[in-house]
Design brief:
The structure holds 2 protein chains of 2 kinds. By secondary structure, chain A is an alpha/beta fold. Helix content of chain A is 38%, strand content 15%. Classes of the chains: A alpha/beta, B mainly alpha.
């Protein structure tokens, strides 16, 4: 019954679009559906992405496309976008940039997708950034908080970030440490690429004089004992990790081996999923740790509600979408991430108009993307000058699988932009669970 | 000081793991004159068999024994069915076949067991021992690893040096025709060699997995490091494999711990060490004789 209702809503949207727009161009609406761009036919839109489905980065991340799939299925069941069904094709790159180039080439040249959406990873996606921008393929909502996708729209006009960038996150965490742990000696554990460097740049704005040791690890090298031994030797009592979830488990396990007990662990949003890390470490408990409480007391950040907030209307929507999709497994934060990104993508497709070109899609995100309401606590920063995504975060402390807020929603931007607390009320999802954006032109 | 001790101990433990894998390569090289690149994924396959048994509720030790037997059977079957047809041809053929096997087995594990990370239990603790107030990077699990590898090495030395079977295996590998003329059942010896090598490989796979995380490709870096360790030791000598593994483990640990951005240099360093040793001593550190070639 609810499905039927949702279907009606979408077809009404399509009809309305026709009445308020007649200024021509690829984004115009009202007439028949046309094959207006590569990957768009009268009744389908093809979207592609790359994810690590195998290898060291796969835990957690490999669940993201299943979440996106669930949400696209949900929208398709309700009639799709402008009566077009969304075809979602994602391929495994094993977090290896060489594979990323190969699969993205396939997606663009063989599968002929309309856009790449949510391609995951900094080193991986960097490998295809030039290719996509040279070919003029929209490269929306890269699943990485690197500045590369959004900082410089002149160089990369087709790429957009989505989640809060790592530099802004570093600033928020840095300010929290400076305010609340001013006497702490801080050790940094960073992935040796833009992820770690951007986070470090943000942190250093606030706690440069508190950092006593910086260690970097290379993804794929799973022996982090030398790095942890160095942090231990430095006397650090707060360790801040900008690392992937597997490495959160590895650092915790190695710290146990070394008897390294800093008084506070802080992990970036990326590496802090308690359910995943707990399940990885559960085996080694033997009285030492138990899975749910393993990350107890760890401080991290959030930019949208997750499974720790089952009462949140957005999480309830995701739960409903996930249950209806009938896929195996529980709702996880990674699946929520995939769904939330798919939600933004549906907003973008609606805003691009009935028969969009690839450039219409880009223009739509730049023009109206900053006004979209969604699951994130704070708005996107999209404009012609910035393609960076969500602008704010909240610092939280983990307790079991729940998260206890330590600050309000802190909104900032890269560089020396101030950090301000947001007063805005968090939007609730539309009743149908499907956004309803007007065409931008 | 504590850092130095811990980096050293961590390097030794890692080195022992490289040694374990190098031992398997040495064993198969000694008994068949083939470098078996599939060793890593064969070991991973047995580790996943062990994990399935443990997940079904059995003890670690039952799983260990079953996995080792499975390893032996797999090794023997691979030799009989897949390697036998290319044996006796150019050496490269067999090597290429093992490379293909490596990929195929890994894919098969992913299909059956899934490709996600899973933690692998260890019968001993993962907390470091404490001396006074300081904890050192030596855990009961690392002692178990070190002990097992030393025992395996001793058994291998004894097998090749003191038993008729060991002599027959070496003879079969060294010169099939001559050995056959002297009454050695060469085919059986080659199968036995593959089976035993797979047992040692499986053991190394389980030792590496214990107290850590496994996924179908978890042996990949170990294949590289184990191979480097084996070549460092001369490919022919069990003791050489141990020493090669320890040298490599320590060197990589120091580089990772003390060189700026050392973690990124680990893989490159392994190859640099290999090149330097081969330039200085082309037969490896423990080669028994430089002129000996199959």
């Amino acid at each position: 019954m609810s499905l039927l209702a949702a279907a009606t809503v979408v077809s009404t949207v399509a009809a309305c679009g026709g009445s308020n727009d007649d200024n021509g161009g690829g984004g115009s609406t009202g007439g028949a559906n046309e094959a207006s761009a590569p990957g768009i036919t009268e009744d389908t839109i093809k979207l592609g992405a790359h994810y690590p489905l195998t290898g060291v980065a796969a835990p957690g991340y490999s669940e993201i496309p299943t979440g996106a799939q669930a949400y696209y299925d949900y929208v398709n069941k309700a009639g799709g976008v402008y009566d077009r069904e969304i075809e979602w094709i994602y391929k495994d790159d094993a977090y290896n940039p060489t594979n990323t180039s190969q699969v993205v080439n396939q997606l663009v040249l063989e599968d002929e997708v309309f856009a790449i959406v949510g391609g995951l990873g900094t080193p991986t996606h960097s490998a295809v950034l030039d290719f996509l921008n040279t070919e003029g393929v929209p490269d929306l909502f890269v699943a990485s908080g690197s500045l590369l996708w959004g900082e410089d729209p002149d160089t990369n006009p087709y790429s957009f970030g989505w989640q809060t960038d790592y530099e802004s996150e570093g600033k928020v965490i840095g300010q929290y440490i400076a305010d609340n742990l001013p006497d702490a000696k801080v050790g940094l554990f960073l992935q040796d690429d833009d992820f770690g460097e951007d986070g470090e740049a943000g942190l250093m704005q606030y706690i440069e004089d508190q950092v006593v040791e910086t260690q970097r690890y290379t993804s794929g090298n799973t022996n982090v004992a030398p790095q942890m031994a160095a942090l231990q030797a430095s006397g650090a009592d707060v360790v801040v990790g900008f690392n992937t979830p597997s490495y959160t488990a590895l650092t915790q396990l190695t710290a146990l081996q070394l008897g390294f007990k800093p008084s506070q662990w802080i992990y970036s949003n990326v590496g802090s999923d308690p359910a995943l890390v707990g399940s990885l470490l559960a085996r080694f408990s033997q009285g030492a740790v138990s899975d749910a409480s393993l990350l107890d007391g760890v401080i991290t950040t959030e930019y949208m509600p997750g499974v720790d907030a089952p009462e949140d209307p957005w999480v309830q929507l995701w739960q409903k979408v996930w249950d209806e999709s009938g896929q195996e497994g529980e709702l996880t934060n990674y699946r929520i991430y995939g769904m939330a990104q798919a939600y933004t993508m549906v907003q973008a497709l609606q805003a691009a108009g009935q028969n969009p070109t690839r450039d219409d899609l880009i223009e739509a995100v730049e023009t109206v993307g900053a006004d979209w309401e969604g699951p994130a606590f704070s708005p996107f920063r999209y404009s012609t000058d910035s393609h960076l995504g969500i602008s704010g975060m909240q610092v939280v402390q983990l307790a079991g699988t729940a998260a206890d807020p330590q600050t309000g929603i802190l909104v900032t931007d890269i560089g020396d932009a101030d950090i301000e607390e947001s007063e805005a009320e968090h939007a609730t999802p539309p009743e149908s669970g499907i956004p309803d954006e007007e065409p931008f032109n | 000081m504590q850092q130095f001790v811990n980096v050293t101990l961590s390097g030794l433990t890692q080195g022992m793991i490289y040694s374990a894998f190098a031992l398997a390569l040495v064993l198969i090289w000694r008994s068949t004159r083939i470098v078996n690149f599939a060793q890593g994924s064969m070991a991973a396959a047995t580790a996943f068999i062990a994990l399935a048994i443990i997940n079904a509720g059995a003890s670690y030790w039952v799983a260990l024994v079953v996995a080792l037997i499975a390893g032996f059977v797999m090794g023997a079957l691979v030799e009989r069915i897949i390697i036998r047809p290319v044996e006796g041809g150019p050496e490269l053929n067999a090597v290429i076949v093992t490379l293909g096997l490596f990929v195929a087995i890994q894919a098969l594990i992913a299909i059956i067991a899934g490709s996600s990370f899973q933690s692998f239990p260890t019968p001993f603790g993962v907390r470091g021992f404490t001396i006074g107030d300081t904890t050192i990077a030596l855990t009961p699990t690392s002692l178990y690893v070190i002990g097992s590898v030393l025992v395996v090495m001793a058994l291998l030395v004894a097998l090749f040096r003191f038993t008729r079977t060991g002599l027959a295996m070496r003879a079969s590998a060294f010169g099939q025709e001559v050995a056959r003329l002297l009454g050695v059942r060469v085919g059986r010896m080659l199968t036995l060699g593959w089976g035993l090598a797979a047992v040692v490989g499986s053991l190394s796979g389980l030792l590496i997995a214990g107290g850590g995380f496994v996924y179908p490709a978890y042996m990949d870096s170990l294949i590289v490091f184990g191979f480097v360790a084996a070549v460092l030791g001369g490919l022919d000598s069990p003791i050489g494999a141990i020493v090669g593994g320890l040298i490599l483990g320590l060197a990589l640990s120091y580089i990772s711990g003390y060189v700026d951005r050392g973690s990124a240099l680990v893989n490159v360093s392994a190859l640099v060490i290999l090149m330097v040793v081969l330039l200085v001593r082309p037969g490896g550190l423990f080669a028994s004789s430089t002129a000996r070639r199959a």
